[in-house]
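Hello forum,

I keep getting stuck at the same step: I have a sequence, I want structure tokens, and every attempt I make locally crashes halfway through. Rather than fight my setup again tonight, could one of you with a working pipeline run this one for me? It's a single chain of 182 residues.
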Amino acid sequence: MARPNEKPTDPAERIAEAARAAYEDAGGDMREAARRLEGNVRRSRALRDELTDPLISAACWDAIRQQCRSNRSRIWHTPVSVAPSRPQLPAQTSAPKADAARVIQLAAGNLMLFPLPGGRPLGQATRQEIAAAAEFYATQAADMGVKARWLALVAEAVPEGRQAGQVLNETRLRELRGLADA
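Reply #2:
Ran it on my machine without issues. Output:
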């Protein structure tokens, strides 16, 4: 952390200092402080880059993660009982085109392409990587199961036409959570 009268050297500290200064200059008015900080960011390329670089990095990671989820869903949800049929191709179609169409059709449901957490296709994964993926999904499933049981208990505790905040307090919610964990 920078000492008083010293400019911060860490990008996160510079952003925090700029936000602090805008907030103080705005007399504690958050909307005005945000407008002032935005003006400062738009005028300073360095501050803009420091503020947006982590956002760009996170957005890129999210886009790749979403693509992986989409691939996983497409592969996983292909009907198991339906074997891909041979594509209907005109008689004059060459064999390489027919082969390419068949490859594309088969790949749509090829479980060897199922992406493990991190993106590695199942067909390229080692036993240890597959076991780690299984553990990851088991942990996720257990966590989601507890939350589902807890929310079902909360729903039962809220009378029709009322909101949870009107009839439950933190203590009761924690009690219900304990029941869901059991």
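The first helix runs from residue 11 to 25. If your local run keeps crashing, start a new thread with the error log.
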